[in-house]
Amino acid sequence: MSRVTIADVAIAAGVSKTAVSFAFNNPENLGQATLERVLRVARDLGYAPHPAARALSMRRSGTMGVLIPQRLSTVFANPFLSELIQGLGEQCEEHDLTLLLVPPVDGSLESAISQASVDGFISLGLGPDDKALAVLDRNGIPTVLVDSDGSPEHPAVNVDDKGGAEEAARHLLELGHTQLAIIVLPPTRSELETTPTAVRRMEGYEVAIAGAGAPAPECVTAGISVEAGARAFQQLREGARRATAVLAMSDMTAIGVMSAARASGLRVPDDLSVVGFDDLPMAAWTNPPLTTV
Amino acid sequence: MSRVTIADVAIAAGVSKTAVSFAFNNPENLGQATLERVLRVARDLGYAPHPAARALSMRRSGTMGVLIPQRLSTVFANPFLSELIQGLGEQCEEHDLTLLLVPPVDGSLESAISQASVDGFISLGLGPDDKALAVLDRNGIPTVLVDSDGSPEHPAVNVDDKGGAEEAARHLLELGHTQLAIIVLPPTRSELETTPTAVRRMEGYEVAIAGAGAPAPECVTAGISVEAGARAFQQLREGARRATAVLAMSDMTAIGVMSAARASGLRVPDDLSVVGFDDLPMAAWTNPPLTTV
DNA sequence: GATCGGCCCTAAACCGCTTTACTAAAGCGG
DNA sequence: CCGCTTTAGTAAAGCGGTTTAGGGCCGATC
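Output (structure tokens, whole complex):
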């Protein structure tokens, strides 16, 4: 009933466990005849090495973890993350790894980390002083930071948030807009602090705005979805100041703003300019195509 | 340098390995004082149980696998799958499980299965006679089939492909269309056979068309993406027959057809009707909103 | 004819944890 | 003060693999 183990195969083939192991991992250690017999018996019995046992004894699991600082349910709703994970997936495929998505367990990334059987982590959006990083280090799990502030201790891959944001804002200012609105990314882990990414993009926006001597922008926070973008647009309409251009920190939100604006009779970009961030493929399908970073 | 093990903690706390294990898993077996001491030492040392060792010994890994019959890179491009996985993710979260995505390794699902350390599988789009299923059974891994033909051996959750397709086709026929075009889903695993899902949807379309006495539809195969949909539209234009309505087996493809049609000057739905399948949230954002199943 | 080196193969240790079976000490009523 | 049950903790046997050290057996060498 239960799983076929290496011992079963060994007995059935009349050899030792070692021989069976060799048959799969070091065939050159076995004679031709024995090798073939063992492999045949293994196949007939439907033997497959137990992954956990293998991982334990080899000290490697063949799995790459993606540390996600937000609920799993929100990941797939965010095309930017989807794109990223897709890319990771391609690489994993190439190297015969499997991808393990690791979201917080009961709100704690630390405990999630220690539960995961992983050879290394890609961690998304983690600050360099995050406690989760300390846990990783202490357990000796190699880690690459993505979308972080960077850290001298770890390799990191990052988006030029500040530069991109600055360019986006400058683009609008050069078009003649003076009153801008900014739609800020929502916090992910704690409900309070904004993400490092949002902070960096905000810096970029502000640099450009200050540089042009334009008035302070109006800020609204909205989730990464079309609906949230639409709500943000309503919020802006109700505000006192009438921004003529919107800087959204994500494309999804920007799309929401755009469609809500058109639904309420505004022409885009004539009456309202919108610039996103992410450059999702989806941004090109909208009508008109979304300007984005 | 290397990982802190249960033995390290045991020595440091002056107790047996058992006591340390109890501290985490059966605290009621330990005295108050010992319990606290062990936990404190463990925390100070940064101890975390090795997941593989734990999995091996407990015969459960706390991981749910999703068996995906296609390349990982195409999964995230397909919003329908994303939605599905998102739902699975929510459930996993609730039950403190992690989600392992398992695509084919070197084109073989069977070998991917045996590499994955998983307590159970959700398998997508597997026929009931798939060899991968046999492997699962032999290894005693519980499995739920999704989007399959159903199987007496396994619990299954399915979309009413045939019924839905039939309704979609009937809808168009009732609008007065007679010459329909069908955009078929692409094969996933082997390059040859169409998927069971595609077969079932095709049956539904044909039942409706035959029932209405309409001429045979024109069929084109296209991937699940907006671009593929656009290409399919071009292909149809070049064909001899001029379909006035298109039945697409996925929303993404339908959106592609729609936007390509508009780009080429056709009005939708006046000049060309398009019906999708999946009911993605995205389908509601298009202009006009996509009719879908 | 004893010695040596290769070739095949095996026994046993080990990976890090859980769990069963068991013991020493403590508590308790009589 | 004795035998009984509880309490608190331990030793050792797994879980299912890999890997190291070594043991027969063979022909070749001196």
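Residues 15-19, 22, 29-31, 34, 53, 55-59 of chain A lie near DNA strand C (CB under 10 Å from a C1').
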